[in-house]
DNA sequence: AAGCTAGGCGAAAACGTTTACGTAATTAAA
DNA sequence: TTTAATTACGTAAACGTTTTCGCCTAGCTT
């Protein structure tokens, strides 16, 4: 009863060899259906499940992937993980989580610690603190890797991103159509392609509409809510913009608070628009115009690509999967 | 160069036995400092990291824990995971994530799949669909397990919870002090101790203040936002309550929407108060009075307890760790 | 009847560690 | 000086699988 249940035990009870049991469990063609059935029924009866460590050791497959992200307590990333986990379940994979807290050293340390066979592949959305592409250039040769949202470009790896440039362009045009001419930019992810693309979309939209771009005031994100609040207030005081374009969700609270503290009415005095996956955007006061990324789908697509690679399936030609974001116009831009 | 780097390789290069290398790497007292240093420097030089599968197989330690929760895309759970992950890093543990989507069968299936030595312990917040304590009674004997927030009572396991009864009592009193007499209850987690405690706190507060409790209307949570909206609207129409006490975050959006659609002003016509970890509660229109649970700390405490168990440290007498929630009064209750 | 083929199975090595135990050399105790 | 204890290291088994290779039998083909 207390006896351990492993392949050896199954073999003994059935009076066959452990090799046969192993093959039967893996549905090998070498084993007759009759024997397979005997093995399967006994395995179920004894509640046998293979020991993962032994299996990994021998087969070099772990059925595990790692997700490395800045922080799980974030609407975008928690939704991505939800998507990843859902696909992982379908493929029978396990999901390990690592948070970098935007620290490149932690990111590298975690990643390195996974190269000893702990996982079969990695899904990552890189930290914003630095852009260290030498490291990742080497890394992608060592282990199957898929980037999502925050990527390194020009690498031989699948990258799942969104139409940052286009949607930022479109959103900026929306503000211009609402009559804004002094649109300030709340700048996040400045070291990353996503952040740069958003900013470029914003600048190009201004240029297209004949608004001098280099005079547009910018606040860069700091990891300190109070500091961001101060900077935005300063921005509002000095430049008196008629709109704030926030490129990351983290600016929403300080932006709203700054307007309140300075008695500026949204959207009459200042219009606000932000990249965000906040589910309560429509309940804010006033409701917030958002660019929402399909975080859940990004997670799903990234996971699907990785599992295709791990199962040696042909990837659909393209290494760059680009999903569309959605601009939802609400009261904060006068809609 | 391409040669694999494992203990055997280290042993060869240093002309010592693999046993010595293994012991040196594990800082065994049997090995001289001189030898240890030779091993450590070579290991660092060759970028050696032990193969986890081999190590697990032999030592029956995985340095891995599983977190089983309903859904990661939820403010409470994503914060909890953040806390768990942070402690796990300190202890050098890895964290696996599994989502049950409130499905008890998935929950049991995941848990069972972890009993073959894949993890050293489990952190779980159980699904709300059913209360199946026989299963968990057996389970806690098989593997170190810590419950957080959503627990099974009367089991020999650490449980990290919050003061649900007290804070619900206090919140209800707050509504009564605001002049409410017809307080409707939006009921979630009804199968779980947390849900029952919240409801009991609400009922007892009413009783204490001489309000007939059994006439209070209740809406029970369904996994369908549209349905919840309809039910709340129906509730508002039929019973004309002067307050809504929402026991879970998921009721916030339908509650606000219902009031808007029925042209009821918050807080003048209806006051609203909800359990919630929404970071933007203060930005809602109107800002929302919340009971926020210390989700991050709950995760941290749960993880700490588990790692103490795994490291055979003495647990501080008590198996029930109860943290305090915070009632933040805002405009939605007229504050 | 001899030779072949294929199907079904088993023996044994291997994966990379950890660890119980043995042993030699050195040191301490008698 | 002999004996006991200690230190430092090695041998080899074990963890539970997977997989290569080979064997045996039964059924065919000539």
Q: Please, how many helices of chain A?
A: 12
Distance between the termini of chain A: 69 Å
The largest beta-sheet of chain A arranges its strands as 2-1-3-4-5-11
CATH superfamily annotation of the largest domain in chain A: Response regulator
Task: Please indicate the count of domains of chain A.
Answer: 3
Oligomer designation: homodimer
Largest sheet of chain A: 6 strands, parallel
Q: Structural class per helix/strand content of chain A? A: alpha/beta
Keywords (chains A, B): DNA-binding, Transcription, Transcription regulation
Protein name (chains A, B): LacI family transcriptional regulator
GO molecular function (chains A, B): DNA-binding transcription factor activity; transcription cis-regulatory region binding
Domain HTH lacI-type (chains A, B): 5-59
Notable features of this structure?
homodimer; 335 residues; alpha/beta; Rossmann fold; 6-stranded parallel sheet; 12 helices; 43% helix; DNA-binding
Structural description of this entry:
- 2 copies of one chain form a homodimer.
- With 335 residues, chain A is of the alpha/beta class.
- Chain A folds into 3 domains: 7-50, no CATH class; 61-162 and 295-323, 3-Layer(aba) Sandwich (Rossmann fold); 164-294 and 327-333, Rossmann fold.
- In chain A, 43% of the residues lie in helices and 16% in strands.
- Chain A has helices at residues 7-14, 18-25, 33-45, 52-59, 75-91, 104-113, 133-142, 164-177, 193-208, 225-239, 252-261, 295-310, and strands spanning 64-69, 94-99, 121-124, 145-148, 158-162, 183-187, 218-220, 243-246, 271-275, 289-292, 320-323, 326-328.
- In chain A, the strands form 2 sheets. Chain A has a 6-stranded parallel sheet with strand order 2-1-3-4-5-11, with helices on both faces. A 6-stranded mixed sheet of chain A has the order 7-6-8-9-10-12, with helices on both faces.
- In chain A, α1 (7-14) crosses α2, α5 runs parallel beside α12 (295-310) and α10 crosses α11.
- The longest helix of chain A has 17 residues, at 75-91.
- The first copy, chain A, is elongated.
- The N and C termini of chain A lie far apart (69 Å).
- The mean pLDDT of chain A is 93.
- Chains A and B meet through α4, α5, β2 and α11 of A and α4, α5, β2 and α11 of B.
- Chain B binds a DNA duplex (30 and 30 nucleotides) through residues 6-8, 16-20, 22-23, 26, 29-32, 35, 50-60.
